[in-house]
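Course exercise 7: structure representation. Students receive a sequence record and must write out the corresponding structure in token form. The form below is the worked example handed out in class, using ribonuclease T2 (308 residues). Read each field label carefully; the graders check that inputs and outputs are placed in the correct fields and that the protein name is recorded exactly as given.

STUDENT ID: A-19
EXERCISE PROTEIN: ribonuclease T2
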Amino acid sequence: MSKFALLSGLLTVLASPSLTQGLVQLPNTYPNLTACLNQPSFFSCENTTVIENSCCSPTPGGLVLSTQFWDTYTGLEAQEQFLPKNSWTLHGLWPDNCDGSFNQYCDFSRQYDPAPSPAVLPNGTVIPPYNGTSVATFIAEFGRFDLLNFMNKYWINQGAPNDVFWAHEFSKHATCTSTFDDACYGPDYKQHQDLVDFYDAAIRAYKQYPTYDMLATFGIIPSNKTTYKLSQFQNALKSQTGAIPYLGCGNNGTVLEEVWYFQHVLGTEQFGHYKTLDSVTNSTCSSTEDIRYYERTPTSERDARLLP
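STUDENT ANSWER:
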């Protein structure tokens, strides 16, 4: 059994209400936003004046992408790493600049990715790989076993342990989101508050877009026989969200693999109100060919809703 599987088992035990009720008071992880009371309110990327306090609104990464995967296996089923039945999985929460560009790995002091991708930034800077404690341990130190439980159900990696994927997403994206800067947490900042907040925020955005259910309501379900057109996916999702997301396909645009929901946010990424927008990135799915939305490998998924 892997070290991460052992840790997950321990966290499940510790998360039992019978053991923790009345014994643990979870620390707060939210930033200190009192200075934002005097700042104007606006949706990110739509401000007409300079943002004076970047803790109040994400900048320059004000175009926020909530991203999801459709995988059919994990490659780590033997380690009990499964996909959630009847649900897409969480990929991340990304800050894209309002001009279509994006930054990545912006703070090496908060770099927890053991295998950075890319390994070198466009300016030639080599990103130092991380070889320290798992980010799962950081979450557990705040007593957030509920968060770990959800992440192990719905934030699933392919070909490597889940916590490696979580570390990648925080290090590459959250460190480039101004509202997660550790300076926004004030003098009482506790290390890794920002990390816990990022994972909470990514999950909050993910829950707004139940992709599997939204497609299924239009009869679009995974099938190894039936094929669909790009317009069917787009129309189904637009009818539920008001906007056309980015759909990503492999195999020359004929196999559905991912979806990105674009948003502007009023306030912070942690707690603000998201406004869904049409994708600014062209789909990689064919607009003319039939598209396959494959069934999962039966032994690669489980009903996460029935798990504790």
